């Protein structure tokens, strides 16, 4: 019989562990899901949250998790008020105020369910001071709270945090298997699945979002690839305009987020105290910043995959090209590039990402990167 844990594809041991944990009602208060990017941790965390919040609980078939009730549906759509997701909102990781906000929130009663679940992503970016704001709550959380921390390795997590969590190891999912998972979840072709995974830094859950119906990200990717193809025929002034265009296109999802935030503010205007409203506004601002850097990472990831493909062709491995749909353009670029020059361009992508992370204006960084690529393929 199907249950919510079936969606944790590629991780049979995790699936069985979580099934047994919920069936026997032995849920601890803190877990660390540890595994590389693309090991399906986020999806597993939401499935676990479903199992924890579903009112049918452990009494249902196979330990509950109907996957069909209102609570399950809301968790799956990431709209349940008692499941909260956190990601670093500072340039260098989690902010102290973020953790304080979470601690305050955790001390309040759940809104709809009997329990509350906090999913804390990229916990390797939780520095000492931000972690300290949260340690006491992690050590002695309110009885109805479950923390699910997500991290790439146990080594990257502060020992004080690690020692308070039950570790759930996730295995590396091979690229071909990951593409199969994304294709199965979206109905996209294997080729598109591989392209999306590449554009999303290897993350399966982001790749699924990338390909989701109504998402304009594939269109955006096409625009980036078209720009790269046109680069060598361009005047320098055109390049400047192209960088600005790409950044605008990359940031397109921000408009929807801003709109949603405005609505959220308007809805809360009458209930929330002024201080709480200000806090909400500050959080929204940080989330927009975080989302904007994610958009930029997607842009640089697509450029990286294009250069990587040029290098594959230069080394005679055309079959390893990811962006198969633009093969002729890649071949034309490979004719002008050399392996060392393409490697320089690849390094320029890394530098570009690092500069953006250090708050250098994206316009300046993407400009410089496009000029570098142009030099390599002209
Ligand atoms: Zn349910």
TrEMBL record:
InterPro entries noted in UniProt: DNA_Rep/Repair_Clamp_Loader (IPR050238), P-loop_NTPase (IPR027417)
Signal peptide: none
GO biological process: DNA-templated DNA replication
A Pfam short name: DNA_pol3_delta2
Name of the protein described by the UniProt record: AAA family ATPase
């Amino acid at each position: 019989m199907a249950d919510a844990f079936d969606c944790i594809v590629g991780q049979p041991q995790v699936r069985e562990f979580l099934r047994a944990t919920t069936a026997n009602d032995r849920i601890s208060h803190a877990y660390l899901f540890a595994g590389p990017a693309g090991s399906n941790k986020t999806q597993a965390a939401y499935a676990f949250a479903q199992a924890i919040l579903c009112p049918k609980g452990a009494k249902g078939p196979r330990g509950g998790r109907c996957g069909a009730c209102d609570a399950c549906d809301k968790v799956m759509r990431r709209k349940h008020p008692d499941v909260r997701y956190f990601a670093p909102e500072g340039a260098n990781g989690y902010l102290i105020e973020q953790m304080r906000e979470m601690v305050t929130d955790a001390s309040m009663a759940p809104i709809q369910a009997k329990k509350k679940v906090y999913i804390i992503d990229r916990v390797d970016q939780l520095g000492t001071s931000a972690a300290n704001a949260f340690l006491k709550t992690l050590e002695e959380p309110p009885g109805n709270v479950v923390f699910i921390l997500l991290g790439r390795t146990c080594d990257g997590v502060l020992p004080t945090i690690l020692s308070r969590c039950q570790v759930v190891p996730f295995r590396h999912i091979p690229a071909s298997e990951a593409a199969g998972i994304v294709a199965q979840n979206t109905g996209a072709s294997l080729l598109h699945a591989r392209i999306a995974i590449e554009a999303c830094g290897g993350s399966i859950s982001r790749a699924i979002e990338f390909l989701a119906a109504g998402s304009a990200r594939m269109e955006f990717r096409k625009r980036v690839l078209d720009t790269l193809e046109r680069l060598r025929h361009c005047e320098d002034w055109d390049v400047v305009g192209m960088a600005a265009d790409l950044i605008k296109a990359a940031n397109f999802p921000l408009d929807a987020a801003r709109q949603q935030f405005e609505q959220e503010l308007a809805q809360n205007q009458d209930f929330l105290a002024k201080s709480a409203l200000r806090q909400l506004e500050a959080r929204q601002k940080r989330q927009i910043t975080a989302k904007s850097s994610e958009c930029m990472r997607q842009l640089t990831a697509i450029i990286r995959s294009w250069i990587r493909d040029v290098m594959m062709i230069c080394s005679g491995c055309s079959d390893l090209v990811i962006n198969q749909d633009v093969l002729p353009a890649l071949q034309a670029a490979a004719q002008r590039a050399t392996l060392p020059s393409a490697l320089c361009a690849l390094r320029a992508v890394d530098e570009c990402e690092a500069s953006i992370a250090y708050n250098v204006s994206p316009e300046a960084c993407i400009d410089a990167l496009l000029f570098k690529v142009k030099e390599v393929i002209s």
